[in-house]
Amino acid sequence: MVDAIVIIPTYNEIENVERIIRNVFSLQRRFDILIVDDNSPDGTAVCVKELQKEFPDRLFLKERKGKLGLGTAYIAGFKWALERSYEFVFEMDADFSHNPNDLIRLYNACAKGTSHVAIGSRYVTGVNVVNWPMTRVLLSWGASKYVRFITGMDIHDTTAGFICYKREVLEKIRLDKIQFMGYAFQIEMKFKAYLLKFKIKEIPVIFTDRTRGTSKMSKGIISEAVFGVLKMKIKSLFNLYEI
């Protein structure tokens, strides 16, 4: 029985989706995949449906009506996984910024180690980012430092989106109470796990910026992270934050 599933949200990832699926399925350890597609006009979901014929028991697709945000995509994926028997649930991007080979290292940290959450970390051993301009490196690194300072979490890469959660973490977090829908969602999930006293471990990985397709980063996403984190921390201090 497969105990691990990789959730991959997609929007216009036709250039990457087949390659990422085949790469994950080529690993020595077996992982199932759930693609959560936000009605990509480029045919991403159509490609996945064709691949389902080849991988009928390993590849799953959840189609949504439109571009509803990264956070809601993962929450939909988490709920789908929890309705089934998966013990380890992963977040991973479709664009190869996360190396599929590292899935096994994250899995081992939770399945063979004592961690409840394993983070594929760009910053735990320095700055391990490839193909980003220096301005974006500084922005991302600075954002993680800011979040670490504000929240008190002992995590170097607080904005990372390459993660393994043990089932019990997702069962304990009240997913319907998640406030952030953009990339700040990643921060909030870690903060909730931290407040619930789960053990979080960072696994050093090399992050490589996409070579195909278009980045979904925007100024609004950054603003949500900067100001939302401060509000989140203040609420937690006064017991007004729902975990």
Automatic annotation (TrEMBL):
Signal sequence annotation: none
Domain Glycosyltransferase 2-like, residue spans: 6-173
UniProt KW keywords: Glycosyltransferase, Transferase
InterPro entries: DPM1-like, Glyco_trans_2-like, Nucleotide-diphossugar_trans
Pfam families: Glycos_transf_2
Residue ranges crossing the lipid bilayer per the database entry: none
Highest taxon, organism lineage: Bacteria
UniProt family annotation: Belongs to the glycosyltransferase 2 family.
Protein name: Polyprenol monophosphomannose synthase
Organismal lineage: Bacteria, Pseudomonadati, Bacteroidota, Flavobacteriia, Flavobacteriales
